[in-house]
Design brief:
Blueprint (H helix, E strand, L loop, with lengths): L2 E12 L15 E12 L14 H7 L4 E7 L17 E9 L6 E11 L9 E4 L9 H5 L4 E2 L8 E7 L12 E10 L11 E4 L4 E4 L37
Antiparallel strand pairs: 1-2, 3-4, 4-8, 5-6, 5-9, 7-8, 10-11
Length: 246
């Protein structure tokens, strides 16, 4: 015998749950009978036939759909900030991360960040990370602020940074909207001039990398879109003192 008709039957039971904490529902319970039939050729033994569908998580992983987030954190980094109101002189703690579940370990980078007075990318706009291919934290170099990436990382899939609070000159509104572009590489890949997070140390007048090799920051004063020949060094990140509060 070369073939046979294989039949699988399933029963789906649906029982609605109450809406939040309310004692009501807006759907009815249901029972659905499902029957699948297909021809089984050549192998007609009584052994079970294992399903061949691809799990949903594998499909998502194959499509490289990543979950990025950017969160304003509390002053001690213990969780999201309970307030989004800051005063001039405050450091705004920001945390970018990527959910790399079902992926190889990933390292996240902040490619660029732009601040605007409105949510629709309205003018004026201030690019404080990345500009014309720099991909570096420019604010402290441009303004002498204490803005910086936090080193070391708490995890490869997380990057934390601090932005010195500011307001837009000549505007009566004080709201600021921040839009950042994030990207990832495999943790197994070394940082390089195009994949890095570099801060400027105003006291030492030099750039430092969160990931430990300051040589990757050598293009921050030129253009990292067309970086100079890259030589890996052994420098360690430098930490500058925070501005004392007054």
């Amino acid at each position: 015998m070369l073939g046979a008709l294989i039949v699988y039957t399933f029963t789906l039971d649906y029982n609605p749950s109450p809406i939040d904490i309310l004692p009501i529902v807006r759907t009815n319970p249901a029972v659905v009978q499902i029957e699948c039939q297909y021809n089984r050729l050549h192998n007609v033994s009584s052994n079970a036939l294992n399903p061949t569908w691809v799990p949903y998580t594998s499909t998502i992983s194959a499509e490289d759909i990543l979950g990025f987030s950017l969160v304003i954190m509390s002053s001690d980094w213990s969780g999201p900030s309970p307030s989004n109101t800051f005063f001039l002189g405050d450091l705004i703690n920001l945390q970018a991360s990527v959910d790399s579940t079902n992926h190889e370990p990933l390292r996240v980078f902040v490619d660029s960040c732009v601040a605007t007075p409105g949510s629709n990318a309205s003018a004026p706009a201030y690019t404080f990370i990345g500009n014309n291919g720099w991909v570096c934290f420019l604010d402290s170099q441009l303004t002498g602020s204490n803005s910086q990436f936090v080193s070391p990382r708490v995890a490869q899939s997380v990057i934390q940074f601090q932005l010195d609070a500011f307001r837009f000159y000549g505007l009566t509104i004080s709201s600021i909207f921040i839009t950042c572009h994030l990207k990832v590489t495999l943790v197994s890949a070394n940082a390089d001039p195009l994949n890095k997070d570099c801060s400027y140390n105003s006291a030492l007048s030099q750039w430092g990398s969160v990931d430990g090799d300051n040589a990757v920051c050598s293009c921050c004063d030129t253009s990292c879109a067309n970086p100079p020949p890259f030589k890996r060094g052994s420098g360690s990140p430098k930490h500058r003192p925070r501005r004392a509060s007054k």
